[in-house]
Specification:
alpha/beta; Rossmann fold
Length: about 240
């Protein structure tokens, strides 16, 4: 059974249709990658899932519940968290304060345990706890953004371009951490990523989006081998 399902979803910016009948599924325990060029509609899809942009037609279902018309804060309380494109940490707050903000929807009962999980996943954050978020490097800020999302104990983690603007070595560290989360904790992840090679190597399944539509889907391995995907996104 799917943890997240979008069926025939259409989303608009004014009169401009950005999502044109998108249907995808994410099963519990999966990493699902969504790849596509800039402007394909990937971030719009995440905003629609989170309720920032409401679908005009179609349905969004999470954990068996129709969330199509729910407000964002109610969706978060159901167990969905996002690390957005551009990180969007609180730059004047310390690392620890950022992580405390992430835990604000679930209370303090498991705070120490969840904090230790984040520090184990991203050891550099342990040494940066008292440092303001805005003084961190780009890679450290991305780790903090993911850690902040994890502090809400999500059933589904949405990651929007986690490797954007990062050096290749740091990007590999981020992808390795995502893989560890899935293998060790069974985390369910929907990963939006322009780095198709890394995303599809990591993902159990993937979707290719063009102009607001899903044009291909399959296992990560199958999409990596697909000649159209290789020509368009892998430089082969």
């Amino acid at each position: 059974m799917s943890l997240l399902s979008l069926f025939d979803v259409h989303s608009f910016y004014g009169n401009v249709e950005a999502l044109k009948g998108v249907t995808i599924d994410v099963a519990e325990g999966e990493i699902v990658a969504l790849i596509g060029a800039n402007g394909a509609g990937k971030s719009t899809l995440l905003m629609t899932i989170c309720g920032v942009l409401q679908a005009r037609f179609g349905t969004v279902t999470f954990a068996g519940r129709d969330i199509t018309r729910l407000r964002t804060f109610n969706i978060v309380r159901l167990g969905l968290a996002q690390a957005p494109e551009g990180r969007r940490i609180f730059p004047r707050m310390t690392v620890l304060e950022n992580l405390q903000m992430g835990a604000s929807t679930v209370g303090v009962a498991h705070f120490a345990q969840d904090l230790e999980r984040v520090m184990t996943l991203f050891p550099i954050l342990r040494t940066r706890q008292a440092q303001r978020g805005g003084t961190l490097s780009g890679g450290e800020q991305q780790m903090l953004a993911i850690g902040r999302a994890l502090m809400s104990r999500p059933r589904l983690l949405l990651l929007d371009e986690p490797s954007l603007g990062l050096a290749p070595l740091v990007a590999r560290q981020i992808f390795a951490a995502i893989g560890d989360l899935n293998r060790r904790d069974g985390a369910t992840v929907l990963l939006v990523e322009q780095n198709a090679h890394h995303a599809l190597r990591l993902a159990h399944r993937g979707y290719v989006m063009q102009n607001g539509k899903i044009v291909l889907e399959g296992t990560g391995r199958a999409l990596l081998a697909n000649s159209e995907v290789r020509a368009a996104y892998l430089g082969a």
